[in-house]
Design a protein that fits this description.
Largest sheet: 6 strands, mixed
Oligomer: single chain
CATH architecture of the largest domain: Alpha-Beta Complex
CATH topology of the largest domain: Creatine Amidinohydrolase
Number of domains: 2
Helix content: 25-40%
Order of helices and strands: HHEHEEEHEHHEHHHEHEEEEHHEEEEEE
CATH superfamily of the largest domain: Creatinase/methionine aminopeptidase superfamily
Number of strands: 17
Strand order of the largest sheet: 4-3-2-1-5-6
Length: 438
């Protein structure tokens, strides 16, 4: 008994040892942000042909883009914060200014002395005139919410302050905002590997005899254990986890019920096929993961072969889908090609993969939705870019003669698409987890 307790304590220590202290997290976050401003942002501004980018927000009503630009010690914008990024391609320089009373961390310098120029908007106009940009990007977008962060009031005041010459130079920064949100740097990918590993470790612990006692533990018990575990580790979830059950003699739920976040609580029994949907937030990045476990019956020593064979079909849909990732292809093109190939192999796939990164449901191309398997207008027409991360989310329906019914294998893993092609950030589930209970 003492040996078992020691092993569990060791596993818990190993899991928590990966988590940095608040001070170290702040240092790493600011290091990543500085790298993005210095090395990534100029390339993105050149690619989208915007030489000045205005990001404007007020405290507690932050533009989603601005939230990703604030230093670790700024939990929110202050008063009205106006960020100005000016790219001089000929001189190969980028200015990072704040029309605000303070420097915004160490990366963005305050460019407003209120005692000299009391009007914040007039100071912004002075900065614009001094640099005379050709295209001034503002965060407006009809279809991409994360790129539509300029609120109506600030937009009106900006327009009222600008001379007509510069009003005509205002353009949507939609492509730049999306690129900023979706593009991952090497420093971020180094962190992402740890983040996904932590996510997998929490699921492994949740789907174990440490947490689950058949006939006693409910699905809600496991959900709240996961929430508490994340809190105890000093982390956060970006959505409420779910745990659900598929079992012999119970009909397969409809897609609407399966994708409802209001899952019905149920007592876990031996022989149940469990499924979870779980993700965490850590140092400005997010995970999103769905995995399966099976509660062994008395006398069983491994997951039944027919269930594992069904699970392998889910892996096969993943392989078909990610093999179609090609730079410049749209989400809709990749979706429809993959669904067609899966059906030709006799599978029953459904694909609904989304961008993942600084937001859980992030900006970038969309590869279907569970209720839009014919393609997603506009968002699905956005092209696939390099150095991006996706929640490879999909399912396949499999008939089990042993149970006399269909089951749904639902999978989700963080995947990275870069210059060398696609890879999972930190592996994927390739076998159902067996839960051995006494």
């Amino acid at each position: 008994m003492k040996k078992i307790v020691f092993i569990l304590l060791l596993a818990s220590f190993s899991l928590n040892a990966q988590i940095l202290s608040e001070r170290d997290r702040a240092s790493l976050r600011d290091e990543i942000l500085a790298d993005r401003f210095t090395n990534l942002l100029p390339k993105l501004m050149d690619a989208t042909q915007i030489d000045m980018w205005l990001v404007i927000a007020r405290e507690y009503n932050e533009d989603p883009v601005m939230r990703t630009m604030l230093p670790a010690t700024w939990l929110n914008a202050r008063r009205r914060t106006i960020l100005v990024f000016y790219r001089d391609k000929e001189q190969n320089t980028i200015e990072k200014l704040a029309v605000a009373r303070y420097d915004v961390g160490e990366n963005i310098t305050s460019a407003w002395d209120k005692e000299k120029q009391p009007d914040q908007w007039e100071r912004l106009v002075e900065i614009i005139k001094e640099r005379n940009p050709k295209r001034i990007g503002i965060n407006t977008s009809e279809h991409f919410g994360i790129a539509d962060g300029l609120v109506q009031t600030d937009y009106k005041e900006l327009k009222n302050a600008l001379p007509d010459t510069y009003k005509e130079r205002l353009v949507s920064a939609e492509k730049l905002a999306i690129a900023w949100i979706e593009t991952r740097t090497q420093k971020e990918m180094d962190l992402y590997n740890t983040l996904v590993a932590i996510t997998h470790d929490i699921i492994d612990e949740a789907f174990s005899a440490k947490v689950i006692t058949p006939g006693v533990t409910t699905t809600d018990d496991v959900v709240w254990w996961m929430r508490q575990k994340v809190t105890d580790m000093g982390l956060e979830t970006w959505f409420h986890p779910t745990v659900d059950i598929q079992r012999d003699q119970e009909a397969l739920k409809s897609h609407i019920e399966s994708f409802s976040k209001a899952k019905k609580d149920a007592v876990i029994q031996r022989g149940d096929l469990l499924h979870c949907d779980f993700g965490i937030t850590y140092i400005g990045l997010n995970t999103d993961c769905q995995q399966h476990a099976y509660v062994l019956k008395e006398g069983e020593t491994k997951v039944p072969g027919f269930l594992q064979q069904a699970f392998s079909k889910g892996n096969r849909v993943q392989d078909i889908f990610t093999a179609n990732f090609k730079e410049g292809k749209t989400g809709n093109e990749i979706l429809l090609t993959s669904l067609s190939q899966g059906r030709e192999e006799g599978l029953q796939p459904s694909i609904y993969t989304h961008p993942l990164g600084t937001y859980g449901h992030s900006a970038g191309t969309t590869f279907g939705m569970w209720d839009s398997q014919e393609g997603v207008p506009v968002n699905g027409d956005y092209p696939l870019h390099l150095n991006t991360v996706y929640a490879i989310e999909l399912n396949t329906t499999v008939y089990l003669p042993e149970w006399g019914k269909d089951i749904r294998i639902m999978l989700e893993e963080a995947g990275y698409f870069g210059p060398e092609g696609f890879r999972y950030v930190n592996g994927r589930q390739e076998a159902i987890k067996p839960i051995q209970v006494k």
